[in-house]
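Q: What structure does this chain adopt?
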Amino acid sequence: MLKPALQLKLGQQLTMTPQLQQAIRLLQLPVLELQAQIREALESNVMLEPEEEESGGLETDDAPPPHQTAYDSPPPTEPGAATHEERQEAGDDEFGLDLTDADTNDQWTDSSLSGPAESSWSGDDQSLDFSAARGETLQEHLSWQLEMSRLDPYEMRIGAAIIDAINDDGYLIEPLEEIAANLQPETMASVTDLERILKVVQAMEPAGVGARSVGECIELQLRQLDPDTPGRDTALLIAAQYLDEVAEQQYALLRRQLRVTEAELENALALVRSCRPRPGSSVHSVPAEYIVPDVFIRRTEKGWAVDINPASLPRIRVNQSYASLIGRSSDHAMLRTQLQEARWLIRSLEIRNDTLLKVARCIVQRQSAFLEHGDEHMQPMILKDVAEAVQMHESTISRVTTNKYMHTHRGVFEFRYFFSSHVAGCDGTELSSTAIRAKIRKLVATEEPGKPLSDSRIAAILAKEGVLVARRTVAKYREALGIQPSSERKRIFVR
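A:
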């Protein structure tokens, strides 16, 4: 017979506290999404307010810039003075981030999250307008021309239906029979009428709009040329029947079938290549997606310096006016909850920026040769290397390096760009796959155009330089770089 009993067990369990969940969520957000998150928090939490940049404060020229690192000495390892209670309150113990070791050395000086940026990378200087304003769409452009044409209401309805069936590239993507069926029962239109109105639409700007195929699109553009243009008739014939031969570069076959000379064929091909395969792109433009760097890397007299982008730092603080009015009565329970959430958010942002800065320092320190000399000197590095250096978990490093960007004098790179696999060299050293790709790009750029290097030849040249890679590896890297095979490069040179 079973009897009820009490048992005592000891165990350890990781608890995902709200502070930890918030810190992890903010850590993996890119700059633009982080700023959107902060704006949402400002709207929903009355205890948060944006911090206005102070002016007229006492500033000294020799004050160290915020979030800056100069690599003339190794990073300090002694812990800072933050108490265990402060870290426990902020959730640092659960997050596994000991962020206090970055605050004890003058050359690794960090400013507070909400403090004004006093470095040369000021937020005002780096402010950009990331508006998503878009211009006129292709359908609006065509509708305006349709309204200016002298068509009766019946034809206008047909023209509007045809324009609605044109995609952003300028092609008619629906059959005329389907468009006629969609017009019913309000408008009983025949396919003949649709063909007639389609020609009106195809005469609009941009040239080539309303085509149903690439060949028809090129024909529409060629027919707008002067009839006396050299090679126009041959180009029209190529667009109608021989685009596949042009794509396969079968020029000898084209000359025989068209019965033209080499010069006449070149003139016709030049006209074909001058046409827009996507005419709608000249009107419909996709809004630019800007990349906001999270950190700036610049050279100083003491070495490479790492600065957090001040434009990406959300300057928020607790509204002290509201916080001071909170009493101990139960009437203020909601405000006390919002005050605690505001403090958690600010602390989570501090953890995010300090972690981001610590990882960026490690990357710059390990890839200083790349900053000095370029891709060929990229050092092999994986997430585990950085995780061991900064004493964090690999999953944390993965979150930090995803969708985070670094601005250098060589361009803007994602943090992930600096991580690459290891390839063994002849002398036992390890090389980065990024460096090997750079060597392949350099070899192809300096090859003789008439005698391009094959993959086997490139592998042999790299072996002489101490880089042991197989031909298949060379082919994989070459394809990743968008470089054509040696046979294609030779054919292009001969042509």
